[in-house]
Amino acid sequence: LRDMDGKEIMDEEEFELAILRNDDDNTDDEEESADVDNSAEKSLYDGNDWVGTYSRIDDDKFHFLSAHPDGGAIFHCVTIDDICYLKYGEKYLYTDPKHEMDYIFVGTEVPAKEKRVQIHYMNDGSISLTRWGGSVFYNCEWVKCSCGIIGLNEDNEELYWQEPMKLRIVKL
To answer: Which top-rank group of organisms is this from (predicted)?
Structure first.
């Protein structure tokens, strides 16, 4: 795993995932865009969107990835059999093609091949995520601009026009 500057992320080294945004979101000119990349702000969290975790079930457990403007979850990676896995705490990030929701989940077991999350390095040094061997990139759909749902949308129009969610690794 490498950050945007090409520096290697070592196993167990902690980082956050900032969501890089573009400003083409069809808002009025005078309206603040939820998609503006304000990465030049003074504070680490000001103006940035971050990957975090979310639970729909009230059991104090985090079940899938989401996006938040106020700082994200702390991740790290581990390499097992030459495969890099992203982890949140002691839980692995995985996808489940058979699940009704196309989200990235967190679980305690090393994901089987069909449930792995694949990391793609983009031309600008960011990373994007797909299912293992997949060609549809994960995106972030904002809900009332307070949190975002990270998932797959296989709608042909969305695939053609929407750019993949790009992430920047921010070492801690």
So the answer is: Eukaryota
Per-residue pLDDT tens for 18-68?
998 764 443 334 444 444 444 444 444 456 788 887 765 555 555 788 888
List the domain range (segments joined by +) for residue 29.
15-171
Q: Provide the H-helix boundaries in 21-76.
A: none
- Strand partners of residue 86: 77
Give the single-character DSSP code of 156: H
What CATH number is associated with residue 128? 2.80.10.50
Return d(Cα 118, Cα 99) in angstroms, integer.
Answer: 18
Cβ atoms 140, 67 nearer than 8 A: yes
Global pTM exceeds 0.85: no
Asked if 141 and 125 count as a contact pair (C-beta separation under 8 A), the reply is: no
Partners of residue 130 on adjacent β-strands: 118, 137
User: For the segment 56-83, what is each residue's pLDDT rounded down to a tens digit?
Assistant: 555 555 578 888 887 788 999 999 999 9
Number of domains, the chain: 1
